[in-house]
Design goal:
This protein is globular. About 0% of the residues have low confidence. Helix 3 links the parallel strand 3 and strand 4. The longest helix is centred in the first third of the chain and has 15 residues. The protein has one domain: 4-Layer Sandwich (Purple Acid Phosphatase, chain A, domain 2). It is built from 9 helices and 15 strands. By secondary structure, it is α/β, with parallel strands linked by helices. The N and C termini lie far apart (about 45 Å).
Length: about 300
């Protein structure tokens, strides 16, 4: 097991102070445009794998792999889809690094909330225990404040692409992107409205059936083709990019490549999966890149053009 880099209270005070200032007032829905020549690298669940996250930042942003202060590569942005903590002893180190590059490069690095940026998950799956082990348990309320401020989705307007952690919501009336932008800010799972819960907990139906149904997680739905089609037509979308599930290749397409799932922690849960990310280009091309845990860089394993 890798040893975690030491993080003291002074470092946390400086970092969390910057985060609370920088994230205050962030929209529920980030809206971006991606000109030709630019690209957006979309990172799925990292769950404490700080080495993999540093490799991504170094390869695509040009950071030095340390504190992220090196000059950035031009015309590249990073979007993280949440689940930075839990399920790994180094989750605080991973979270601190991601928060550091996000606050150092606010026009290049964007963070979304996942279902593990929440108190119940953090009690059950390790983050709070890890803070206690390090004698830093008093910092959890501050991290909870930061998690609460994180946006829930990102809309790449000129490409018609929506990115979120879980999956699109399925409600009695079709949810519009403007509805997501108006969602209330709420800290804990029991306080969330249904749309927030579904954005962070839903999955695509693995059988790619037509109807949505309750999923096996105890929260959220498995989204079928009918609800997906209605949502995409109503919001003029061409692609959903999401995370929340590990697959052997690190990624999987659903519904005729209208949904792309990426997962960015290799060997998750003692498994043998690769880590994968997506790179959306301004010309509508989408690359899927993967790396095994012992590889230095991500390499392209699949590519397609937005329809």
């Amino acid at each position: 097991m890798c040893k975690m880099a030491a993080i003291d209270g002074g470092q946390l005070a400086r970092l969390t102070g910057r985060c609370l200032d920088a994230f205050k007032g962030l929209p529920r829905l980030i809206e971006l445009d991606l000109p030709v020549g630019d690209s957006l690298v979309v990172v799925g669940d990292s769950h404490g794998d700080v080495d993999c996250v540093k490799a991504i930042a170094h390869q695509f942003l040009g950071t030095d792999g340390g504190n992220g202060t090196a000059s950035l590569l031009k015309n590249v942005k990073l979007l993280f889809l949440g689940d930075y903590v839990d399920r790994d002893d180094r989750d605080l180190e991973n979270l601190a690094y991601i928060l550091s590059i996000a606050t150092s490069h606010p026009s290049s690095v964007f963070l979304l909330r996942g279902n593990h940026e929440e108190a119940y998950s953090n009690r059950v799956y390790g983050f709070i225990d890890n803070l206690e082990r390090l004698g830093l348990q008093g910092w959890y309320p501050t991290f909870e404040q930061i998690f609460t401020l994180l946006p829930l989705a990102c809309y790449v307007r000129n490409q018609g692409v929506l990115c979120c952690h879980g999956m699109i919501p399925a409600m009695p009336g079709v949810v519009k992107l403007r509805d997501i932008a108006k969602l209330p800010v709420a800290s804990r799972f029991e306080q969330w409205d249904p749309v927030t819960t579904q954005l962070l907990w839903n999955d695509p139906d693995v059988e790619e059936g037509y109807s949505s149904s309750e999923n096996c997680r105890g929260a959220g739905l498995s989204i079928g083709q009918n609800d997906l089609e209605a949502f995409m037509v109503a919001n003029q979308l061409r692609l959903i990019i999401r995370s929340h599930q590990a697959f052997p290749a690190g990624y999987r397409f659903f519904f005729q490549k209208r949904v792309l799932s990426v997962f960015s922690k290799p060997n998750y849960g003692m498994g043998q999966n690769a880590a994968s990310i997506a790179r959306l280009h301004g010309d509508g091309r989408v690359d899927i890149l993967s790396k095994a845990s012992n590889d230095q860089n991500f390499t392209i394993v699949d590519t397609f053009k937005l329809g």
